[in-house]
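Human: My hope is that you can spare some time for a protein that puzzles me. I am handing you a single protein, as its sequence and its fold in token form. Could you go through the record with me and say what the backbone is doing? Take your time, and here it is.
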Amino acid sequence: MKFKFDHDCWTCLRPSGTEPKLKFYFGVKGETKEQAEERLVALKDEVLKRVNAKV
């Protein structure tokens, strides 16, 4: 599954083909390297926070 967000940011979730686990991929863009790194940290934190949330 691929999820697209503002500022051309995205995350992709897929099952491993050889192991019983899920893999996450993240993509971001920014005006500068620093901005892209900030967006990557924020995106990863938010996605993983939601994945690890208790229902």
User: Anything to note?
Assistant: Residues 2-52 form one domain.
